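Pasting as-is:
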Amino acid sequence: MEANEINAIIDNSEYALVTENITKTYGFHKVLDGVSMSVKKGDIYGFVGENGAGKTTIIRVVTGLIFANSGSYKLFGVSEKDEKIYEIRKKMNAIVEAPSIYLNMTAVDNLKMQQRMLGLTIDENKIFEILKYVGLEDVDVKKKSVNFSLGMRQRLGIAMCLINEPKFLILDEPLNGLDPEGIVNMRNLILKLNQEKGITFLISSHILTELSLVATRYGIISKGKLVKEITKEELDVVEKKETLIKTTDNEKAYELLKEDISPELLDYKDDTIIISGEIDINELVKKFLEVKVAILDIKTKQASIEDFYLSVIGGKNND
């Protein structure tokens, strides 16, 4: 296939990845149970699940490292059974579990080796351009990667992925073990690659708060089953702010609030009135005082992505 034909296939595809009923078993253990997921082109798709949920296994299937027992998948609309898949794969790269770097080599030599393995002409200008892009331009050119920090190795791994100018990057737990600075650097690099180079990401992670800072869409997997897909916008609605109020006369207060607040945003459970969304506390106090109702207790809480995740999978799992 010519490069133009590959680019045309990718340009005309709505999805970078679609899986249909992927099942994988090892002996009597079903690791993946009918997983159907879709990663839209341009997504930063956060793939969320407990340890052993099947995240790495589905990644191994779609990268061609292992075969599924049943089901199928497409990359940029091309079926895994189509001979074109081998050419399409050249526009996908992955870091599964840990970057495949040569620890006895420098960053430059690692990228030269990657160019050789891909059958490309050694291009030092491109190598230094990529190292600058991932924030490794100031590293001593003689420093071997065995002496790199974990965050530097992760960025070098991504640099190696960028040699063939991919359109789809899969990262398996890229934040594991990183210090706070390393996490910020990795987060910024992912956003930069997505926004400036249009790279679609599938990111497996269990660090949900960090993932929520980059992901545009989520897939939640638990015990081998994909239980939910949700966009960032949909999640923002779910992660609603709530104000919890206790007063000297809850029934009167509740009836008063019903005059101005939509029923779907107002609830009354036990001895607490619950208001969803933003409210003006000062106006609320003023309104209550007019009918001689005093507030005994008031507090706000914001649902988090962890709360949503646990509600979807039904609580904590025992790994």
